[in-house]
Batch of 2 targets.
Target 1
Amino acid sequence: MAWTKIKDALAASPGTECTIKGWVRTRRDSKAAGGLSFIAVHDGTCHDAIQVVAKGELDNYESEVVKLTTACAVEVDGVLAESKGQGQSVEVQASAIRVIGWVEDPDTYPVPQKRHTMEYLREQAHLRVRTNTFGAVARVRHALAAGVHRFFDERDYYYVHTPIITGSDCEGAGEMFRVSTLDMLNVPTAEGGVDYDQDFFGKEANLTVSGQLNVETYCSALSRVYTFGPTFRAENSNTSRHLAEFWMIEPEIAFADLSDNWALAEEMLKYLLDDVLTRRADDMAFFDLRIEKGLIDRLKHVIETPFRVLPYTEAIDILSKANKRFEYPVEWGLDMQSEHERYLTEEHFKQPVVVINYPKQIKAFYMRMNDAGTDGAPGDTVAAMDILVPGIGEIVGGSQREERLGALDARLDEMNLPKEDYWWYRDLRRYGTVPHAGFGLGFERLIQFCTGMQNIRDVIPFPRAPRQCEF
RNA sequence: UCCCCUGUAGCUCAAUCGGUAGAGCGAGCGGCUGUUAACCGCUAGGUUGCUGGUUCGAGUCCAGCCGGGGGAGCCA
């Protein structure tokens, strides 16, 4: 039962006896000295495969070893030795090779050892993790997720499991997926509409688009909390930066204002970048070499540079004076478009930028109203922030929340939102309300930022997007 | 949802003005070599996304449908 992980075998001393288990990447044969084969075997425990050296004297050399192809599963007994060849320090001199699982038809194996396009591999999502690139993405994704929990745990933030199914339709962050057990061919009606009273929950239910409103309730008792789970948006967006199902990290801090908020976001991003560069140095070196040249330097630059904090009003000023023709208009009160955000973070500042204090009309009802005249703005602003990073654009969106019941109600009225739908959210402002703030970080966009992967569908194991729900 | 590009061997792509379907990689077999993006030779592999139309003749032109990609919007 006991065997050695390839990660450990590669770090062990020559002379060590071991058994490894894994899958064949490549096999190269030599006729020298009665037969000699070099088999690269990987088991996913690290980026590299280990080289197994199989000699012709093995019992099953002619019958099995020389017939091994990419993806065959094998178990190898042997002793570690300093490699006589270039390219690796140690290798396994095999004393026995047992084939655990053959590839039934190597000619039609969908992921042979050759170059593939990302688009093709996306159609082979169940097999693509066997490639260098997707194995590295999977390990980096894990490292980032583990880093998120460690970061928060070290700072006394509690992980709160907010619900996936939500009965409130007031999250207001986009189109939702309906959850229902009603017979679609025979929908019960009442008063001209669907009678949701007969549905599973006795009311309309949807998949969550954000855990924020729920996590605020726990923030109002535990002080520092976060959620980290899947969220769902039924938007018909077809881009390399959007998914219908994606994971989001949403901390919420009590007794905090907007500056505490971006400080936490900046600290977390830098912590995670440093963490992944250290813990997954092998995979990050691969991304730097094969996916995006200069990736590691770019990330180190982000770690070392303080984020630039920029009021929205000032950002509009910079954009309107920029010597650049934009497709969309730049005007105070309009939301910034991708091209504007990209200009600020990629061309003007060339570093992550925290844009704060947006006009209230382009932001959500729960964001805290700023005092009139903040930043010299010509209109009302709210304590919102977006963090923009080169290459991705918006990676974090957050705000200080409106903790004053009167101001919150005024915003609900302004936006024609029925107060009764928000009864439990309003209760938080009635019973021991405190200033608090939080943000959402798109986990897949963070992985894109860390790996240089161009398409968000390639940093999640099984992407869900419009007309894409295979596997 | 909008704009643009695209669909040919397992994969990546050629195929001139509409005139008999090609290569590389991968795979199989053989050769060579402590090999490592190995190398050399041979072999197999095709309803050109689907349906219809124009034509003596369609991978190529036209229409519809389906799939894939890039950009935009929406956002994280």
Target 2
Amino acid sequence: MRTPQELSTAFRAIGLKVTPQRQVLFSLLHQNDGHPSAEAIHLAASAAMPGISLRTVYQTLNDLVSMGELQQLQLTPGSARFDPNTSDHHHLVCDGCGDVRDVYVSGLADVDVRGLDGFRVDATDVVFRGSCPTCTSATGDPSAPHA
Amino acid sequence: MRTPQELSTAFRAIGLKVTPQRQVLFSLLHQNDGHPSAEAIHLAASAAMPGISLRTVYQTLNDLVSMGELQQLQLTPGSARFDPNTSDHHHLVCDGCGDVRDVYVSGLADVDVRGLDGFRVDATDVVFRGSCPTCTSATGDPSAPHA
DNA sequence: ACCGTATTCGCAACGATTGTTGGTTCGCAA
DNA sequence: TTGCGAACCAACAATCGTTGCGAATACGGT
Ligand SMILES: [Mn+2]
Ligand SMILES: [Mn+2]
Ligand SMILES: [Zn+2]
Ligand SMILES: [Zn+2]
């Protein structure tokens, strides 16, 4: 994620105004290395600016996504996750707790792909699904705590 | 997708009944090599059995998914897609028309993955996003029809 | 054929996201 | 500094996809 300053400039450049609400969101996203939902972002933003509306959060997230400054992920049914990490990376998803982590993959260009049939590929997303260490020890451990 | 007969046996084996509605769905899915939504499956099922409820379609699809006989995909925001193709394959998604196609990838085991950190990987999903031949010629063609 | 239980269906409810409207505030270019 | 248009909020309503619920019905082992 670019800095709040850079994002402010980018917003102004396309005729969008830089409001305090947006600045709060720029700052939160810039520091965020996770994969928060809109609801989670709203919660965090509310701490810094009580009263900020969920509607405004959605609006700004959508703006950032369409500017290519933020990635929107739909890894599971349910709410979308937003990803401030714009570097070339992929994801691990824990089926147990729903946690999403970044993972870096190299050598993807060497895989053999059959069936492209004239399809133009713009992006490749790899999603590894499984169990995080916490959930693995919980489910695999016979002495695991209840539920 | 296994045959309707095999699915019937599998259902009975776990105490689930084989109803006419389910038989219609078994048959439809067995012949289907696409990635239909629940709505689309309901539409097709309604042709064979007028009056079948969308609720029943969801119920049976969910049963098949939890039995591992059917795959559920969440490739985009919006409705889930169901995949009767249980072979090891991956997907192409057209950003233009939303079409989903199968693609076969080999050599995935050779890619270098950093950041696994004790995470146990059970499945790997690769999604190629881009533009199908139809949408590519439409958008790239200066003489393309309006809108 | 009987009976217990699974299934069906229609409708209500849900979670996530977007649309609307009206009044107020505020960024920012001139 | 001013003025205009954008953005904000509140308060809803609406949409979409999916699931919960409950009364009526039907499967299938005996
Ligand atoms: Mn990420
Ligand atoms: Mn497929
Ligand atoms: Zn976990
Ligand atoms: Zn297309």
